[in-house]
Amino acid sequence: MSEEERQVNQGEKSSYIEQPKGDIFIQYGEKKIPRALTPAPILSDCFIGREDDLKEVYQKLFHGQKENLLLLVNGDGGFGKTTFASHYYDRYSEKYIHRAWVFAESGVVDAMLTLAPNLGVTFEPTMPGEERLEKLIAEMSKLEKPGLLVLDNANNVEDLEKHYGALRRCPNFHLLLTTRVTKLEQAQCHPIKPLTMENAALLFKTHFTAHKKSEDELLKDIIEAVGRNTLVIELLAKNLNHFNTDLKTRYYLADLLKDLQKCGVLALPQTKEVRTDYLSLAQKNTSSALRQETPEKIVAAMYNLSDLQENEGETELMSIFSVLPAETIGYNTLEKLLPGDEQLDLRLKSLSKKGWLDYNEHEQSFKCSPVIQEITRLQNKARLWEDVEPVVIALNDLLEYEPGTGHLMNVSYEQGGIITRYGERVIQCLEEPRYEICILAERLGSYFRTTGNLAKALEYFEQYKQLSKEMYDADSENVNFIHGLAISYEKLGVTQLSLGNLEKALEYFQDEAKLFEELQDADSENADFKNGLAISYLKLGDAHRSLGNLEKALQYFQDETKLFEELHDAHSENLSFKNGLAISYEKLGVTYQSLGNLDKALEYFQDETKLFEELYGAYHDNVSFKNGLTISYSKLGGTHQSLGDIDKTLEFYEKDMQLSKELYQSYPENVSFKNGLAISYIKLGNLYQEKKQNTKAKGVFQSAKQILTELVNISPGHADYRRNLDWVENQISVI
Length: 735
Description:
alpha/beta; about 725 residues
């Protein structure tokens, strides 16, 4: 057996043998699945008073009555649920064959689906989130047991109740949820209780080593007053460390208490002053020396007292962390979100020393507590957008895609998945309609559309429309707002068209065209408005053609072509307008083909091909131009075949196949290119059959079968893939 890889037969369920630490992957048939399905969580350096809890949870999970015991690690905010779970995850990681840690604040479905890439699970574009979850869980059930799955911050009780049954269908995983929920169906609970006074004091003294023994009684009263909340205790201690120099301590616990009381918390019932002889006062009234306070009030008071350096960007950083997910974020990622900040590492480490951020030195990553996030958003409400705007702009840049292809230009799709999670959280936290937020909603929708999650795409395009509408209603003369609203209608229409909701799609395209017609009427020389109107006519033509209204479709495609010809004539060097004109010729050709006018169709397909040959000839690296030329060759081949010109048909089908093969080889994960190559093989095989060249026909049909088999395995419910595979297999059998 290899030291780096353990071979496990697919579906085999063997008794568990502890895996060596160098064993990174497990082999399942042709799939190689990593043991660690996600990065590990941040592990705090200081872990006090929870050893018995670790052992008890281990016993419950490994020796409970049910194999996939769902255990709630619950308690109020700030008591260390996530810290406890992260130490369990680390302590017993080698007891599990696979392990994963997901952040569940946005819901079970979104959290679970982040596991799909490492599990090699893909989905049909129109598959709803709930069905995606079922498919994912079915794949997880094939993995060797035991596995560990931690859902951190799973606090939405309605969402948990809805997906309780789905979670229980992970038979080979121990499920550990950190949550404030106290009861969930038949799930067992393990409450994280307050630390004992002894351990709470030890935690404080570990972080504030200069603590004076003479203040022990004061410390006990403060610890009781804050409910022995670990987050608050650490904040108090770390800020005391910060307020003092390394050489000399001048600011002690009594001083901090006095400042907190000025903020209206931790009042003394007996006096409004913090007396220097507090010890004797506490001895007289040890049962209730300080008023009980909620952790949120203490954290808010500490935030006001904390020495956050506005001129050094610390307050801004806290605002940024308050709108990002409360999950581990690597330093490399933070650099992408705040490009050009040369002091970023120093500010982050300063905030971690003060207790506002958790820092994992080994992983070079940071995390902010949900309690601190909530307080920060409240404290910085007036300046939140000002602080966060640079990150929204950075997110928009990272999610920028190449028009016409959907390919992300600045990050990989794997990185894009992480960036979209950040973008989703930012939108949830920022209430005001802003132009940059509109762009972010559109980018999120486009990402989800390109990666096949049409339900999520629709959700964010709806949000894009709503934000655009609010800004348009506030200033209906602003052309940027009119343009944005029009584009939002287009995005919604395209998505509804993909979902098969043709009437709804038509309605959105009509709304889009109306706005662009208004813009064009107001400024007829504006190329962007004319381009937008042309595209809206293209979409209307597509919708009418899908509905069978060919004459209406033809009229819109003719109007589109007229506009693109004007744009191309006026701006002959503009590649976008040239590309748009080529596509408009294709739309006309397809419509005339459907109307039975093959000569007219051929004319437009030839015009389309000429433009794409010019574009691709000048820009060989442009995927969109190459794909456009591939499609144009296919259209020409099909039309010549209908006209009976076999030699011309063969010429264009072979060109189509060659380019399709190159696209597939360059982008093997692109389902559209993969399917395009299969179709080109089928067309060529049909032609070889017609020419009685059965050996050649069988060869290309076998190539098509191989690709279609891959597609059916990826999307078993896709009717076209299955139908085409059955047809090809039948053709091979009869040749």
